[in-house]
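QUALITY CONTROL LOG
STEP: pairwise intake check
CHECKER ROLE: data steward
CRITERIA: each record must contain a sequence immediately followed by its C-alpha cells, with no blank fields

ENTRY 1 OF 2
RESULT FIELD BELOW
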Amino acid sequence: MQILLRQAKIIDSSSPFNGQTKDILITDGIISSIEDKIDHQDAQVVAGEDLLVSGGWVDPFSHFCDPGIEYKETLETGANAAAAGGYTRVFSMPNTEPVVDNKSQVSYVVQQSACLPVSIHPIGAITKKLEGKDLAEMYDMKNSGAVAFSDGLVPVQTAGLFLKALQYVKAFDGVLIQIPIDKSIGAGGLINEGIISTQLGLPGIPAISEETIIKRDIDLARYTGSKLHITGVSTKTSIDLIAQAKQEGLQISCSVTPYHLYFADEDLVSYDTNLKLNPPLRTVSDRAALREAVENGLVDCIATHHLPQNWDNKICEFEYAKSGMIGLQTAFAVVNTVLPNLSNEKIIKLFSENARNIFDLPTTHVSVGSKAELTLFSRTAETLLTAGNNQSKSANSPFLEKNLTGKAVGIVHKGKLFKQ
C-alpha cells in the first residue's frame, strides 16, 4: 500500500527536512521518499492548503470505558475518535469494570486494540480495585504493556501509600500519573469555590483541594527521586508549585486539558452540565496562568481527559450530573483557537514529543526509512464537531456545533491512512 502526502510542510525538529514543504511517499508503512515533487499514479493522495505533517500525537489520559462500561465508549469507538482527532497513541485510564489492576486486564486492552487505527496503551491501577488500600501488581502490569500507573478518576489520597507506590515504580523507572484532587476538601462541591459559585448558589471546590495534593506529591517525589506526572492542573498556584519543582530538578512533569484553557467558571452561568468537571473550571486569572504556562513551555503535555458520559448523566439537574466531557476530536482545534500564536514546534512538543520522552514511547521521525507514524493537520482549516461526525459513543461536549480554528486532517499509522 502506498500513500502520497502532497506538498506537506514538515514539522519535526529531528528531520533534515524540518520546516520544508515536500511530497512524502509512504510504502508499506515506511517513508520511502521525500522530494519536492513525486508523481505516483497508484498511491492514496492527501493534499490540502496549509497541510502540515508531524510525528504522531499522543494523549496521555483518556477513558475508553472498556471493559464493563461499553454503553459510554468502547476501545473501537474511542480509537476512532482519537484517529479523527489526529492521535496515533492514547493512554486509557484503569477506571473500568473490572479495574485494570492486573496483567490479565492490561493484556486484554493491548490485544483488543491491536487491529484498531490507534495504539492504545493501558494505564495500570496503582491500588487494587482502585480502593486506595493495597498496591496493585505494577511490575507484572508493566511487563504486560502498562505504560504508566494511576488510580485515574479516584486519585490516591493516602500519603503513605502513594509514597510506597513511588518507591515501587522507581525500581523499573516507571511513572505515576495523578489528578490533583484532595477529596476531603470541598467533598460536596460542584464547581470552583469563588464569586461564581456564590452567585449561582452552588457548593464550591476550593483551589486548595488541588494545591494541597500537589505540594504533598512533590514532597514525596523529592524524597523518593521517582517520576511523577500531574495531570489536569487548573490553578495558578499549582503551576507555580510545579515550576519550583522543575527548577529544583525533580522528575516532575504536568499536563493541562484543552477545556481548562478555553473555559473559566464564568461560563457556568448557564448551568451547562457539559462544563461540570473535576478538577473544575477555575477563574479567568487561573485560565490566563495556564495559557501562559503552555506558551512558555512549563506545561509538558496536552491531556484531553476524554471522559464519555451517557445522556442520562448529563441531561439532568446540575447537582446530579456526572463530571467530564469528551475531547479527543476537538483537542487540537481548541488549543489552536485559544493560542493561535503558539509555534508549530511548541504544538508538536505539547501533542507528541514531550509525552514520548516522559513515558518512554517509540520515537517517530519524518525522514526517509523511518516507520510512518504521522499526524496530518492544518492550523487554518476549521473543525466543527456535529452529531454526524462525532466518532465517540457519547456526545457530552460543549463544543458541538461550535466552529473552532484548526483541524486534524488524518493520521498515518500501522501502514494505513485514516482521514477525516
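ENTRY 2 OF 2
RESULT FIELD BELOW
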Amino acid sequence: MITKFKKFKKTSSIRTIFTSILIGLSFTAIIGFLVFSNWRVSQRRAELTAKINFLKAQIEVLEEKNQALKEGIIQTEEEEYWKEKLYEQGYVEEGEQQVVILPPEEEEVLEEEEKNFWNPQNWWEWLKNKMRQ
C-alpha cells in the first residue's frame, strides 16, 4: 500500500508540474495578448491625435480666411470703397478733371554687343545693310 501511495504521488507531482506549466503559459499568453492589444490601441490613439491636431490647424486657417472674407464683405458695403475702385478705373466725378501721367520715353541706347567690333552678328547686319544699298 505504501508503494501505491508513492506511485500515486509521483503521478500527481508530474500532473502538478504539467498543470503549473500550462497555467503559467496560459497566463503569459493572456498577458502578451493584453500588452499587444494595448500597444495597438496606443498607436491608433497617436494617429488619431495627430489627425485631430492637423484638422484643428486647418480649422484655424479656414476661420482666419472666413474672418478676412467677412471683413471684405463689410468693406464693400461702404461707399468709400466703391469710390476708390471707380477712381482706380479712371472714372471722375462731375466737376473734376482727370490727369494722366505718362512714363518718360526711353532713348535708344546701343547695347554693349552692338558696339563690340568683334561680334559676328554685327558683321552680318553690316553686310546685309551694304547689300541692300
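INTAKE CHECK: passed for both entries
DESCRIPTIVE NOTE, ENTRY 2: Residues 7 and 13 are 10 Å apart (CA to CA).
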